[in-house]
Structure formats: structure tokens, C-alpha cells
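ESCALATION

Customer reports they have been waiting on this structure for their group meeting. Please prioritize. Original submission:
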Amino acid sequence: MICTKCGAEILQQFKFCPQCGTPVPEQDAALQPKSSERAMAVASKDIPTLISVPAGTFPMGYNEFNRKVSLLAFELGETPVTQRQYEYVMGRNPSKLVGQDRPVECVNWCETLIYCNSLSMMQGLAPCYSIGNATDLSKFETTSPLWKRVICNFAANGYRLPTEAEWEYAARGGKNSSTDQYAGANDIDDVAWYGENSNVTTHNVSTKAPNSLKLYDMCGNVAEWCWDYMGEVPIMTLTNPHGPKIGTMHVKRGGSWLDDPQQCTVYFRSGSAPTGKSSSLGFRVCRTLIETVM
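Update from on-call: job pushed to the front of the queue and completed.
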């Protein structure tokens, strides 16, 4: 169990939270998760660990709307960015559902780009994002119209958000694309914290099974921001698509702790305004493998 006040883990026999002393409510069996939370499978670190995703082609989308998409190799975060990782770089934790090893949430799209550039500069890498000549995006208010001018240099070696094509390709298992509805399984309870098993909260990352690439929480826990604007994906062969150049909504993928199974599938897509934020929305980082574009 998780304390709803401080986020501490509570054993079933406890009547009070050992950290803050909050009384533990009686648990209705009908509200218990269908599968229990396991120990974290990956070590908690201040900097996200990246997993290599080899180049390949896959059918993006669902059923008759499938289209062939080819992608260069890239690296993707092993888990969503955690609160520990966000606070290490940004010096603050904006999350409502607090826990150092839970996904960071309540970050809007602009704030994810600020984090990516800040982490890149901290690691001595070239920032991917710029507005004009500026790469220190923290100087821009997230409500500023100047954010419409932000560009991504996909040839830079710094951190960035994945495109939604990269996100779906990785969720499906890369070049050995799986037909599973969820990232790593057809049984959602094996791989995702979602509306029916989450106990109305986020959970520590990597406490569900990974997919074949060893990526955790691609479905459930928190939905994830992508780089792209929300738009129709053309039914045609695409190579390294970066999405529409203009738009008002940005893509989010994967579903969350409050969503139904359909919203947690590898192909479901929805959008949010770039200033939108909620306790069900986070992100994971990506990097271009530079040797593949030289």
C-alpha cells in the first residue's frame, strides 16, 4: 500500500503510516489491485538510463489504418523520468503524487523541453531545443507565444522527447514489432498501472514487467508527452516522421493510472495543449544515435 498523504510504502498489517502517522483506512477487497506491486526492477539513479532501440520498420497504428514507418536507431529512457531525476536537474518537484521513484507529473510540454536542455548542458551534450539562438529555455515563460518558434535539432547529441513514431515503435518492441495490445503483454495487469489496479495513484517505476526491449511503464502509470503536434498520421510509407510543423495540441501516449485499458494500448493517441499538466501526465527522454545520421 501507499500512504495517500506522504507517499510512503505501508505494509498491509500497519494501522498507521510509519513515516507521517496518518491512519491507514480499511481496504475494500474490491478496490485492491489485481496484481501486487513488486520491488523496483532497476536501480534508482539521478540521471535517466537509456536503452538502445535499433533501426527498423513497423506498422504504426491500428488495424486497417496501419502504415509502414521506418526509423533510424535511437535511445529511449528505461523508465519515465522520476521525481528524483527531475528534482536533481531542476531543483524542484512539481508532482502531486509524491514519491522519489514515482514518475514526475504535473509538468507541461514546455517544461519537459526545459528539462531536456538542462540535462543536456549538465552532461556536456549539445541541447536539441532552441528558440531563436537561445537554448536556455528556462528564461521563457511557458505561456509565451515564443514557444511556437521552438525547434528541435534531431542531429544534436542531447536529450529530447521522442516523436510519437519513436514512442510507438519502442513500445511495440522495436524492429521485432509485437502484436501485443500493451507494451510487453496482452494482459494489461502484467505491465501497467491503470484505472482498475492502481488504487488511484502512481507507483514506483519498474514495478511491472518490461517489454522485450526492457523498457518499463510504457503503458500505464503516467501518460507521456511526445514532441509532435497532434494531427492525422498519413496512411503512407513514412521515414523518420517528426509530425506536423504547426498545430495547437501535442501528442501524449501510453495511458495512465486513471485510464481504462483502451487508453493504455500501444496505438491509442490523444492530445493536450502544451501548457496542460496533470498528475497523470509525465514524460521520458530520448537521444538520437549520432552515428546513424552522419
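Sent to customer with the following note: The mean pLDDT is 90.
Escalation resolved.
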